[in-house]
Amino acid sequence: MGKIYISQEEWGSEEEFIIFNDFQKVSKWYIGPSEYEDYDDRTREFLSDFICTQDSFPVFLTFEPYSDQSVKFEKLLNDNTISYTSRVEGIGNRTFPVFTITLKNKQDLQLVLEETFWMAAANQFFAFSFTDNCTYKLIMKKILGRKEKPYMLPYFQMEEDSTVKTTWHDGQGFNLYTSNERYKTLERLISQLPKGTIVENE
User: Fold this and answer.
1) Residue 15 banded pLDDT, cuts 50, 70, 90
2) How far lies 134's CA from each of 7, 14, 150, 156, 189, in Å?
3) N or C: more exposed end of the chain, with fewer CB within 10 A?
4) What pLDDT, on the 0 to 100 scale, is given for residue 14?
5) Average pLDDT over residues 116-135
6) Residue (of 136, 110, 114, 139) closest to 125 by Cα position
7) Residue 62: Cβ-neighbour burial (10 angstroms; 0-12, 13-18, 19+)
8) What secondary structure letter does DSSP report for 194?
């Protein structure tokens, strides 16, 4: 994905299914392909390039697979000696599996993205962080004017220099949530992009 679009986004909409310990110090950016064709593949490739460019391994991937896929992913990770934890989150009979994978290098990152990104494109929760800072928290949330309901949501402890990347709808780009000064302005963010990236914001 050589050509991308970047915009600074409002934080805290009803459609946001992610929470932070201190959202006031978190900036939010959307980064996505400027071309529609094969946008999910372009997003996957750029996400890999962006993470590798930051040179901040290990990175941590937290995702919520479909229940019938858990055994398959466990085998993939075990066969490739990739460290992970798995658990079950949820409320009452509404439970779901959660994996957190520790990716130590570019090869592990690319393998896991190749095998799992289809879930991000299917709108399952899928987030990278440069620190192992994701737990789950029970909150009451109102969506689209409906009455409040309890949800068990991903909760990130955003200390200084924390950055989280979550895939956007259908895998079309990703949101970058950050308290790191090097991503706080558009100019600083652009300076951290992979070489050769073209930003088309007009």
Assistant:
1) low
2) 25, 20, 19, 5, 23
3) C
4) 62
5) 96
6) 136
7) buried
8) P
pLDDT of residue 142: 80
Query: How many independent structural domains does the chain possess?
Result: 1
Tell me how far apart the alpha carbons of residues 103 and 70 are, in angstroms, rounded to a whole number: 18
135 alpha-carbon distance from chain centroid: 14
Distance, CA of 177 to CA of 11 (rounded, Å): 9
Q: Residue 36's pLDDT band (boundaries 50, 70, 90)?
A: confident
Q: Is the pLDDT of residue 13 over 70?
A: no
Determine which of 64-78, 84-98, 130-144 has the lowest per-residue pLDDT on average: 130-144
Range of the domain at 97: 3-199
User: Residue 119 carries which DSSP code?
Assistant: H
Q: Which helix (H) or strand (E) holds 78?
A: helix 70-79
Half-sphere exposure of 172 (CA within 13 A, CB side): 7
108-112, 122-126, 167-171 — which is least confidently predicted? 167-171
Coil, strand, or helix at residue 27?
strand
Q: Is 128:51 a contact under the CB 8 Å cutoff?
A: yes
Q: What span, in angstroms and rounded, lies between the C-alpha atoms of 79 and 46?
A: 26
Q: Which residue has the tokens 């990236």?
A: 197
What six digits make up the tokens of 146?
Answer: 């409906």
Q: In this structure, what token pair is assigned to residue 75?
A: 């085998």
